Amino acid sequence: MKLSINMAMTLDGKVVRPDGRWYGLTSSEDKTQMDVYRSQSDAVLIGKNSILNDNPIVKIRAVPNALNPRPVILVRKGTLPPDKHVFEESDHIPLIICTKSNLKEIKTSLENKAEIFALDSDDIDPKKVTGILKRKGYKNVLLEGGPKLNFSFLEADLVDRIYITVVPYIIGKTGLAGIADRNSELPGFDKQNWTLKQHFTKGNEIFLVYEKS
Ligand SMILES: NC(=O)c1ccc[n+]([C@@H]2O[C@H](COP(=O)([O-])OP(=O)(O)OC[C@H]3O[C@@H](n4cnc5c(N)ncnc54)[C@H](OP(=O)(O)O)[C@@H]3O)[C@@H](O)[C@H]2O)c1
C-alpha cells in the first residue's frame, strides 16, 4: 500500500491560517489537482481537528467518472458531530478508527453514520491504521492532514510520497503549522531526504511531488 500526504502550503510554509483553519487560499487549479490525487486513491485519511475546523467534503467534482475514495477518520479522544459533511455527503460510509477509551462515545453519536473500528489501546498507532487499511485491500491512501496527523505517520516512517501545492500567499505569523507539526522535531530529519519526482505549474501555483529516497 502506498501512502501519500497531500497539502497546500503558503510561500512561507504555513498550512493553517491564524484562525487555525484553511480556506480561501487555494485556487480552482489546486482544487482540481486535489481531485486528481483523490481519483487515484481508494481512501482518504483525515484527522479529527481537520474535520472539526474545516468540515471538508470528500467528493470528486473535477474528474469525470472518477470513483470517490472512502473517508477514514482518526479520533483518539471524544467524538465528532454527526452533521459534518463527511458523514452526510460521502459516497462511501466513512470508517472511524478510535480507541477503547472513546468507543462508547463514538458509538453513541456516530453508530449509524460510520463503520467504527476500535483499537485495543488509548492511542492510535499509525502502523495499526495502515494494517487495517491494507487488510481492507486499499492500495493507494491519501493523507490529507492536518499537520498533527501527518507528523505521526512521518514519525512512523509510513509516508511514501508527498504532494505539495505552493500557494502564493505569505502569512508571516509565528507558530502556525507547516505540513508536519508537533512540539518536537522528527527523529532523523536530516538523514531522510526526499526525492523530487515531479514539478509543474498551473496558473499561479507550483505543484511538487516528492518520494521517499
Ligand atoms: N493546508 C492544507 O492543505 C491543510 C490540509 C488539512 C488540514 N489543514 C489544516 O490543519 C488544521 C488541523 O490540523 P491539526 O494538526 O490541528 O489537526 P489534525 O491533524 O487534523 O488532527 C489531529 C487530531 O487527530 C486526532 N488523532 C487521532 N489519532 C492521531 C494520531 N495518531 N496522531 C495525531 N493525531 C491523532 C487527535 O485528536 P484527539 O486526540 O482529540 O482525538 C489530534 O489532535 C485544520 O484546521 C486545517 O485548517 C490544512
TrEMBL record:
The keyword Oxidoreductase applies. The keyword NADP applies. One of its GO terms (molecular function) is diaminohydroxyphosphoribosylaminopyrimidine deaminase activity. One of its GO terms (biological process) is riboflavin biosynthetic process. Pfam families: RibD_C. InterPro entries: DHFR-like_dom_sf, RibDG_C, Riboflavin_Biosynth_HTPR. Pathway: Cofactor biosynthesis; riboflavin biosynthesis. Its EC number is 1.1.1.193, 3.5.4.26. Residues 2-206 form the Bacterial bifunctional deaminase-reductase C-terminal domain. It comes from the Bacteria. Keywords: Hydrolase, NADP, Oxidoreductase. This is Putative riboflavin biosynthesis protein RibD:Riboflavin-specific deaminase. The lineage of its organism: Bacteria, Pseudomonadati, Spirochaetota, Spirochaetia, Leptospirales.
